[in-house]
Each structure stands twice: as C-alpha cells, then as structure tokens.
Amino acid sequence: MTILVFDSGIGGLSVLREARMLMHEHTFVYVGDDAGFPYGDWDGEALTRRMEGLFDTLIQTYRPHLAIVACNTASTLIMPALRTRFDLPFVGIVPAIKPAAERTASGLITVLATPGTIQRPYTQELVRQFASHRQVTMVGATRLARLAEEHMQGRSIDTRVLQAEIDPCFVERDGKRTDIITLGCTHYPFLVNEMRKLAPWPVDWLDPAEAVARQARAVLASVSDDSVGPLDTGSPAGDIAIMTSGSPPAPIARLLGGLGLQLTSQHFPSLDAGSRD
Ligand code: DGL
Question: What is the 85 CA–ligand 1 centroid distance (Å)?
C-alpha cells in the first residue's frame, strides 16, 4: 500500500523514519512543501487553502491508502478539513502534552513548537484537557525550524540563536525545575543533540514520532488494499520524495537520496496562481 507523509520541509523525515521501521513493506511518498516553508507564521485560512490544493494533486496522482500529516503546525489546524474533503484516513501529529503531563516528576513541563502551533485553539485545548494540573510553559519558537533545515543542509548553526530559542523552556519555580520538554515540531528532533548540549540542566525531550507511526500502522490495518482504485500515472516503484519548490538545495537532495527516496518532480496547479496571502 502507499503511505503519504507530508510536512512543510524536511521535518517530517523524523516521522518517516519511524513509520518506515514499523511499516517497511509499504511504499512511501514523502512530500515537503519547501516552497511554503516555514508554516509557523502562516495565517490559518491561507494555510488550509494551500494544503487543500496540494492534497488535491497528491491524492489524485498517488492515490495513497493513508496520509500522515507529519507537521504539528498543520495538524493542529487542518485535520477536520482534510477528513471532510478527502475519502482516505489521515493521521496527524500534535505535541505530546498528555504523556508529558503524565510522566513529569517536577510538575513543570514545556511545549516547544512553532508560534502557529502554540496559538492554535486545538493545542490550548490539549493543555486544558490533559495538563491543567501541571505548570505548562508554552514556547513559540520563531527560528528553530529554519535552524533545523540549515543544520540538515550541513550549515553551521548559530548557537547563540539556538540558546535564545530554548532558554524560555527552562523554568525554575519553588525549588522545582522543568523536567520534560515536548518537541511540538517535527523539525526539532534533528536539533535535539545540539539543544541537549545547551540545556542548563538535563530534561527529557519528548518526540511523539514513534507514537504517530504506531497509530498510522493501526489505522492502516483497517484499510483494505483494494480500497483505492488502480493507478494510471504516478505509481511509485519505490519510495519517492517530492519537494514543492522543484529544486531543493543540493544537500537536501543528497539527504533524500541517502534515505532511499527518489526525488521526483510534481506539478501543483494550485500553486500556479500563487496562493500565499
Ligand atoms: N515541521 C513543522 C511542524 O511540525 C513546522 C515547521 C514550519 O514549517 O514552521 O510544526
């Protein structure tokens, strides 16, 4: 079966790697909307329209059996719209607030995510529902996703910027300290080693990628192979990657190739008119 994994850039690769481990017998189509990156500061309505247009093309062309929206910024916004518009199962990723609230020993947890994810009513509701008995610090990082992209391109990252982005995550109150930081953006796991080095004290960095992959496997188990019609075009022979810019930087192209994803070009009619507000 074919599984589509979608993100604004290379962040979703942190989910793809878990999904492939659990579902290696399936074919993956990885899509990075690098032409729209970063998603963190997009207006909600404009982002919804953009993603609907991209998914129109992707679903028509690749006929996936399941789509994983491997982007918190998108998932906290658009899952109901995608489920209404398209007739296939969608799995999203959202910050691991419930597990963080369950596991913390100090009672102080931090959600580190893009400004978009932090502001979403969906995220606020997760905190209210699962962590109202905890002290939750919400940090909307404006530059981290871009730093992760740069890091993955082999460019040296400015540790002062990284330090400034993570500093607000670490809170000391009444002799207690933050002990869990939930990584609410799929780009951040690629920076976690750097962040660990800069952390003022050790914390648990929670990445929900594996849980999402398990959820995707469970959902896929209930999908029948013939639930989707045969493909006329675009049937991938192996795993492929599509970047909406059509021309990702050479190090990203190499990275995708190294992961066994064949870089494939795809025209998106909805992008022709320029849909960004
Ligand atoms: N990787 C995306 C997420 O999980 C967002 C990065 C961005 O485009 O700002 O939220």
Answer: 22
Q: Which SS3 state, helix, strand or coil, does residue 139 take?
A: strand
Query: Cα 273 to the chain's mean position, in Å?
Result: 26
What is the tens place of the pLDDT at every residue in 155-184?
Answer: 999 999 999 999 999 999 999 999 999 999
Does residue 28 line the site of ligand 1, with CB under 6 A?
A: no
Proportion of the chain in helix, strand, coil states, percent, rounded to 5:
45, 20, 35
SS3 216: helix
What is the Cα Rg of the chain in Å? 18
* Residue of 15, 39, 68 to mutate, ligand 1, most atoms within 8 A of C-beta: 39
Q: Virtual CA dihedral for 276, 93, 225, 31, nearest 10 degrees?
A: 40
Confidence of residue 233 (pLDDT cuts 50, 70, 90): very low
Which of ligand 1's atoms lies nearest the C-alpha of 8? Answer: 8
pTM, two decimals, is 0.94
Q: Is 185 a known active-site residue?
A: yes
* Mean pLDDT to the nearest integer, 146-163: 95
Q: Looking at residue 2, what DSSP letter applies?
A: E
pLDDT in tens, 55-76: 999 999 999 999 999 999 999 9
